[in-house]
Amino acid sequence: MTWWTGRQSRKADGVEPLHGGKLYLDKQHPALWRALNGMGLKAKEAAEAAGLDRILIELLYVRISQLNGCAYCLNLHVGQALEHGETQQRIAVLPAWRDTEVFTPKERAALALAEAVTELAGADELERELAEARTGLSDDEFSAVNWLVITMNAFNRVSIVSRHPVRNNRRK
Fold this sequence. Notes:
By secondary structure, the protein is mostly helical. The protein has a single domain (38-162), classed as AhpD-like (Up-down Bundle). Helix content is 63%, strand content 0%. The protein is built from 8 helices and no strands. It comes from Arthrobacter mobilis. One of its GO terms (molecular function) is peroxiredoxin activity. Residues 43-116 form the Carboxymuconolactone decarboxylase-like domain.
């Protein structure tokens, strides 16, 4: 069966996307969108209360959005990461973070957890990945990162399914 996924940037096997007339889930059910936004804010508050800084939070949002292929969220959170002081270098190497030494042990544990929860491997592998992430994070940090990942995955899915557009900001 051939079908269109939001993660593809072009036609899949010549099949046109189903969103000729876009249906933005956030506009169709604004109360649900507000509830998701509220959950996202609470997750961010919990992360900050656990001692996670805003740069790490934005890095997690960027990495999750990379894994899910959410262009809208990537555009938004790369900009926010840069605004909060993240470097272009670290954003550029984020997909290969395991092969660099530019991330702290806490950031590496949080990134590993974000990948594990986003990709949800088989039970044994997931258990190993979660245990590995636990070694670099306190209980509060571990829980807060999980909530950030859960909410960001939800935001990614809303944006992917809705086909939220990315506007071209290039100077003319």
